[in-house]
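pasting for ref
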Amino acid sequence: MSKIYDVIILGAGPAGLAAGLYAGRSRLSTLIIEKGQDGGQIAITDEIENYPGQIVEGESGPSLIARMTQQAEKFGAERVSDTIKEVQLEGDVKVLKSEKNEYQGKNVIIATGAYSRPIGCKGEAEFMGKGVSYCATCDANFFEDFEVYVVGGGDSAVEEAMYLTKFARKVTIIHRRNELRAAKSIQEKAFANPKIDFFWDSVVEEVYGDDILQGMIVKNVKTGETRKVEADPEDGMFGLFGFIGTVPNSKLFEGIIDMDERGYIKTDEDMHTNIPGVYAAGDVRIKSLRQVVTAAADGAIAAVQVERSMSDYF
């Protein structure tokens, strides 16, 4: 029989790593399962300014996550790189199955996070990695001295647009409304940046090109008029970055755990789901603010709740 852990944590983003830290420090046998790289979305964030206690002189997502990973490992959290395909969450022992392995735990903390929402235009999938991107930190250097476009109007979209100005010669924000939704302090920086322009009341309807992104059709949602945007002939292509929100990584739990209509997991303030012994933390759950600091708080709360429930056994 495989080992039965006190708690299994799905995901090694800020929520999962914080949960691992707190669980391990409470002397719970802890397993963290992550299918990709540690950090989730924050791992591809170039600059962090608002995490309490960060390096004030400059903190990146990867540098912050590296320290979180070391802390979780210091207190004994075991690690596995695997993709869970099936879960059995009822009963005293929860079972999580991948293609080759089976993991058992008395408690499960779901910290699977969320991913970038697609722009939703025709041809998008065809040009992913060929001009269409959702990660400025990953791909900005590919567009050195090129023109790029950013879809979205929230904090992330505007912040990433400003980051892209370090590389691109011009950045145009395409937003479906006539004003940004980003915080005023962020807007002020964007409006003051001479490299940033705007397409207001607009959406991208289609992207096209010969193997690489060379053109797109942008529609004005108020007038219905469309315009063609084509790459400068000397460039031969341009970049299109989408930052219009996130989709929760919760499909594995559909029909098992209570969710809202968007797929975010319902919890109480102590991270309990509708299933005893199953908790959710971080971006995958319903919450008003999705930030590193709130994800870490969620993970800590979930782990403490596990520890308290386990003390009932003694």
